[in-house]
Amino acid sequence: MARELVRLFRRHHLTYDQTKHAVEQARRELGLTPPRERQRTVARLDRGEVDRLIHHAYRRAPRYGLMVKTLFYTGARVSEFVNLRPSDLYLDLEPPQVRILHAKGGSDGYVPILPELAQELRTHLNGRTVGYLFESNRHDAYTPRAVQRLVADAARAAGLQKQVTPHRLRASVATILLDAGMPLDQVQKFLRHKRIETTQIYAQTSARNMGEAYLKALQK
Questions:
Q1: CB under 8 Å to 75, separation ≥6 — which residues?
Q2: How far apart are the C-alpha atoms of 76 and 90, rounded to whole Å?
Q3: Residues in Cβ contact with 95 at an 8 Å cutoff, skipping those fewer than 6 apart
Q4: pTM beyond 0.85, yes or no
Q5: Is 170 a catalytic residue?
Q6: Segment 152-177, tens digit of pLDDT
Q7: Is 21 among the residues known to form the active site?
């Protein structure tokens, strides 16, 4: 039956809608149910894994450690992170904030950071007010690919048995915040999502991790 359908599609150059209709009709005649929609969840690191990642990035070089720490604590997309400038830092506010520009879909915004990170960034800049927040040896912005390699190298050094990317760090801080009780709408604002449905993907991941934490805490 499946082979006959494929030959039919190829012979008559059916459109997507025509193909979909034919498949649905064949499924009904065979009494088959459509596959369940795969639940959308986002893979993440737990807090211990994040700490190990940052620690090993620092071991490689203090600048690399600070880059990974800033990437995690701001929840920035890598394309946003590489474009951060000293003028985007508001380190004297309570709490300190970072302005995220160049955002996907134009969702610019301000995110809070820890005072300890703010102090590290002050030391890193050492009074510099021009250029990029983090610059390569050529005093250019890092490329997204270079930051991805930096994160992956730190993950290997930390012995993490997961594929670690800047996006996974973004997912990790989101679910850690949700696990700690931050309301969904505040996490949406932190991540600069235009639609709360996008943020709810992280909430589903958080709920799964809650169940794992529950079992770990109570099972003997």
A1: 111, 170, 173, 174, 190, 191
A2: 16
A3: 112, 113, 114, 115
A4: no
A5: yes
A6: 999 999 999 999 999 999 999 999 99
A7: no
